[in-house]
Amino acid sequence: MKQIKTMLLVGLTVLLMASCATKERALDRLENFSVELQYHSQEYDLNDWEHAAKKFIKIRKDISKHEMEYTSEQKRRIGELEGECASYMVKGAKDKVVGIGSEIGGILQGIFDSIMK
Fold first, then answer.
1. pLDDT by residue (tens digit) across 3-28?
2. 53, 107 in Cβ contact below 8 A?
3. Which residues are within 8 A (CB) of 74 and not within 5 positions of it... i.e. 6 or more apart?
4. 86 neighbors 29 (Cβ within 8 angstroms)
């Protein structure tokens, strides 16, 4: 009986650690993505922006899976990073792909719709 309790406790600990690592990984990916946009988005073309939009949506979905697990400080940081990413995307759309308005408009609309879910 004691062995069963020990095994259950170990199993629960492993599950909690894995969940914590996954939520931290999603936050780290958002931070890395923000830095990537900061330093490289001025060189992006339409294909790069489409890839960036898909990547942002995937990161956002991963974060939303753990929304209830984040602390208030982590949620504040997530909001700050999402705002930075959106800012880079809007600036990039305005500066680099002005002639492709409807396509980039659709990409940006998809991004913001994803954020609002």
1. 665 555 544 444 444 444 577 899 99
2. yes
3. 27
4. no
Residue in the structure block whose two tokens are 């969940």: 19
Nearby residues of 65 by Cβ (< 8 Å), 6 or more positions away? 26
Structure-block tokens of residue 66: 């753990």
Q: Give the burial string for 87-116 (b: 16+ CB within 10 Å, else e).
A: ebbeebbeebbeeeeeebeebbeebeebbe
Give the pLDDT confidence of 44-53 residue by residue, as tens digits: 888 888 888 8
